[in-house]
Each structure stands twice: as C-alpha cells, then as structure tokens.
Design goal:
alpha/beta; VC0802-like; Rossmann fold; 2 domains; seven-stranded mixed β-sheet; five-stranded antiparallel β-sheet; 10 helices; 17 strands; binds S-adenosylmethionine
Amino acid sequence: MPNAPDLTSEGYSLLITTAAGREVEARREVKAVLPDAVVKGLFLKGNLLASTALPPERAIPALAAAQTDLLARLVPLDTQVRITPSAEAPALIAQAALRLNKPPAGAKFLVECRRRGQHEFTSRDVQVAVGRALEEQGALAEFDTPDWLVAVEIFQQVAYLGIFPRELFVTKQLHRARKYAPGQRPLNRAQLKLSEIIERFGLELRPDMRALDLGAAPGGWTKVLAEHVAEVVAVDPADLDPGVAALSNVRHLALHTQELLERSDLGRFDLITNDMNRDPDESAALLCRLAAWLQPGRQAVMTIKFVTRDRRRHIRDATGILAQQYEQIRVRRMPHNAKEVTAVMRRRA
Ligand SMILES: C[S@@+](CC[C@H](N)C(=O)[O-])C[C@H]1O[C@@H](n2cnc3c(N)ncnc32)[C@H](O)[C@@H]1O
C-alpha cells in the first residue's frame, strides 16, 4: 500500500468516510460546510482526511447538521503513529494514546480500532493494548455507556488516533444513488431555480434570442439560458464555473453591473435576468437603467432578495421602482426559497 498522508501540524484533522468512488462529491460536500478545509483522499477508496481551522467541537456538529448525501462516519483525530506490520505496533499505539493525556481519570471510555492492511496483530490486540494503558492512567474501560471514544484508524503503516467525547463521533446516512446521469448534475440550486421560473412563468425563450444575465456567477442561470438562446452575456465580477465559461455561446464580462452602464458596444437583448445579491431597491434601479438595452415588450426576470425581515416592504418598493420602466409585473415565491421572491415583467412598449 502507498503512504497514507500525514496529519497537518496546523489546524485540526478529521477522518471522513464515504462511498467508494464518490470521493470527489463527498469532498465537495465537506468544502460546502468547511470552506477552509484541505481535503485529501486516502489511497483506500471511500476515505478522506480533512484538515480545518475549526476545532472538532465546531466542525463535527456543522457537518452533522448539513444536508449531505455522501458523508458517512465523521471521526475527529488527534495524532498519528507510524507503525510496522509487526506485533509491536499495538504497544506503540498505546504509548501515543498515553501521550495525549486524555480522557480524564475516572472517565468511561471505549476503544474502537479499524484496521486496513496486512499486519501481524489484530484490531482486538490494539484495543486491548490501548485500553490497558488508559486504565493504568486512571480512566475506566466501559463497553455499554462510555462517555469517551478512542478511535484507532489504521491504514497499513499509519495509525490515526482520536480521543474525544462520544458525541463528537457521528455517523451520517449515506445516499448513494446518483440523482443525475454523469455530466447532468446541476451546477447549483440556482440552475434548478431558473428552470422552475421558466416553467412557472412561461418565460419566452427562442433560439434566435440574446440574453443578458446579471449577477451570473457561478453560472447556473447562464448555463440554462445558453441551452435555449443564441447568446448569453453573463455579467459578474466573480468567476464563472469553467464548464460554463467555456460554452461557445457564453460571453463573460467580469464587471459590476454599474460598470456595464458605461458600455455602448453590447447591442440590444431579448431577455434580461437579474439574480444579483444586492439590496432589492438598488437592484431594481439598475434593471430600470438597463431597460433601454431590452427590446420593447420583451421580458426581464429579477429575484427580490429579502435583505431584512420586512418582506412586504421589499416587494412593494422594488416593484414600485420597476414599474417606472416595466409593466405586467408578476411576483411569485418559488419553492424552497423563503429568502427571496421572483418578479417577471415586460419592458414597456
Ligand atoms: C445568487 S448569486 C447568482 C447565482 C447565479 N444566478 C447562478 O445561477 O449561478 C449572486 C451573484 O451576484 C453577484 N453580484 C453582486 N453584486 C453585483 C453587481 N453589482 N454586479 C454584478 N454582479 C453582482 C455576486 O458576485 C454573485 O455571484
């Protein structure tokens, strides 16, 4: 077996198990919750090692609470020991456990060892050696109701070790079924949101149209629009997903919409969509300033973001501003999104 990676000396480490072959998606799920995490695959499929600045007391509950499909066991780690396959390894692991100086005297603990690779000792040998050492230190081995767990995760020549209160060891439900065919997985929820908007509002899209997408990154809406129209100009200072940026009918302008107003070379559009993360009044005012760029009678879409709890006021004020340049303004709340509503309207003829 090749070398297992070392734990970093900075930050905290977690072992995370997933379904074999789904490591990339599992890694994405970890990064969505812990953006700073460095996540490496172990050579043995289905195992990831994550290091993060968040201590396990914060990282584990955050991962446990997040909606995930591909995270299974979450194991906080303290340290690692290089071992050989020989029968001396359990004693080495026990010494490393003693150096951690926990759990406290009198605490009830249980040792669980999972061993991958070829060794001249068993998982039980490790459990016994570590258990005895911790008992000599004053903790109490207890099978049924331990307060602490001692995890020993062996990957051939490395034993990772974690001694933590039991509640920090979490096992999540795996949902292995692929929901989407390869290449069909949506980029983000926004992509699904626009598909719903197209359907529910009966958005007019034709292959000869040009669309302007404001607040486009990472590109869920742009991707959907590019499937329906001849050209999409995507405006956002942030990067588009490389797969979207590479589409032949997508042009990304890495600008704020305010800067766009100075341009005069972009021509007219048949649709403007606006999903910018901005105060709704400001967003509506920008869409009004761009109304001249939209063919008369054509549609515009804008999400009205609830930046405060005063939702009614946001809807009333934003639609009031939009009414200066647009008519037939329809507002709907799309499923699964309590933080915004969507307005679809037409440029006044
Ligand atoms: C909710 S995200 C858009 C998601 C996008 N519709 C998609 O499908 O992937 C909001 C975006 O608005 C962008 N944004 C915020 N202010 C902006 C501005 N003044 N001009 C252009 N984009 C802006 C942010 O950079 C962010 O990428």
